[in-house]
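quick one before i forget lol
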Amino acid sequence: MFNRLSERGPTARWLRRTGIALGCVVALTLSAGAWMTYQNDFAIREQRVTIPGPQQPLDGVLALPKSGNGPYGLVVFVHGDGPADASRDSFYRPIWETFARAGYASLSWNKPGVDGAPGNWLNQSMQDRAEEVTAAIDWARGRSDIDPDRIGGWGISQAGWVLPEVAARRPELQFVILVGVAVNWLRQGEYNLRAELRARNAPESDLATALARRDRTNQLLRDNAGYDRYLATGIEESPMSADRWGFVARNYLSDISPTLPQIQIPVLLELGEADLNVDVAETETVYRELVRPDLLTVQTYPRASHNIARENLDNGRDSVESFLVAVFAPRQIYAPGYLDNLRRYVEQQPARSTP
């Protein structure tokens, strides 16, 4: 009997240990799921809204503070380049939560043609985008839960050719926050090309070839060349689509310099020192020269990317670490201090009397 029990002992121990291990895996999985749910449960209430736009309705999201009835302040979001949905694939939600803690709602919308929204964002000029923002502001001012004296804007990247135009036209706005914005479209494109190649340690011959291609493309734009002519030249290994060519042709001369002296409201400029898209030194210099000093605040973040995300989690990296942080700790994507600075800035802005 003793020997028989002895023979079964190792199997029983293995089964027990396996059961314990599986239990631990299940517990860890449940804990991870609970943690992920907690980390992605933002202190906001999201409402789907339809905004009357200048060309077609805008499919939007109004992110309100978790509690209260308002009236709340409002931050109108303006996207950068690309086919962005209202939350920019949830990238905005930590920022919406930050503004909510300061008593502000956030308003954003799908670009035309994105997630079923009508239209095509590639058919827009920067002027068209500015008119969209103006229409959204007018719509929001008619809501009883929004304080018309506390409406500002937050814009990133390409929004730097959109939101300052709105700010210059709408002096009743409370503030604008500009993140990773450039000044001149053509200079920004060349800077980005050089920075990306430098980051990949590309040889000088690659840079020379890329710059030559860029010069030829820009000459076609200056010549008002059609898409067929652009394709026929075979300049680029991966040519733009016809819609993209039209978008670039409409917007490549964008330069915000003439508009900046017209701005009469507070401006917060948020810049990442590791930005590969924009020459942040040029941006800061031009804004300091052209925006009234008493209206301008500049905050620069070391080791932060174009999006004011931590450099090691952005700048084109597709890493496991980036994925894990995005899923399990989305607020940690951003550079230290960025979210707190946004909250403090809007809290400090006095309400502006509506004309």
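fyi Strands lie at 44-51, 58-65, 72-78, 104-109, 146-156, 176-179, 267-272, 296-301.
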